[in-house]
Each structure stands twice: as C-alpha cells, then as structure tokens.
Amino acid sequence: MPIPLNHIQRPAVKMRKRDRLRAERIVAAGGPMPNLRERAVMLAEKLGEVRTRDLTEVGIPRCYLTRMCEEGLLIKVGYGRYRAVPRRAA
Asked: Staple 34 to which of 1, 8, 23, 38, CB 3.0 to 4.6 Å?
C-alpha cells in the first residue's frame, strides 16, 4: 500500500515581518512596479515616437536613454527623438 504524500507539509520559510508585509503590499497592489527601462519602452510603444522631454517628465533620467539605445531597447531617430524597437514574434 503506497503512502499518500498529501499530508506531508513543508516547513514554513522563515521570513522577517517587514519582508512579509512588503511582499503582501506588492501582491495587494497587483504586482511589482515596472522599472525605469520597462516604463520607457512602454511609453515609446504607446506613443510611437517619444522625445527626451516626454521621458524626463515621467521620471526617466536622460542617461538611461543612451544605455537603452546601446542595449537595443530604443532606436534613436533624431536629436532627442526615440522609438521602441519592434518586437519580433516568437
């Protein structure tokens, strides 16, 4: 007769109270907030073409734009103008 494994419980992972409360707040808010790179790409996809001013108004520093172009997340169209790289179908 096989032993059912349903009754075996894993020991609870010890977590600090502040970490547990933070995790609960993140879940209650609908998940983690997108980082600056994700926010910049989402804005560029939404608007089509964004200006440096549009991104800095949202709180994305200008120094990120050069890095994102080097990483292939944005394409520099002209002076102060950027577009999101078109996503390829998988």
From this structure: 38
User: 43, 55 in Cβ contact below 8 A?
Assistant: yes
Count CA atoms closer than 13 A to 40's CA, side-chain side.
28
Segment 51-88, tens digit of pLDDT: 999 989 988 888 888 898 999 889 999 998 999 888 77
- pTM over cut 0.85: no
Q: What is the three-class DSSP state of 8?
A: coil
DSSP letter assigned to residue 80:
T
Neighbouring C-alpha atoms within 13 Å toward the C-beta of 8: 3
Give domain limits for the chain: 34-90
Residues making up the chain, counted from first to last: 90
Cβ atoms 58, 36 nearer than 8 A: no
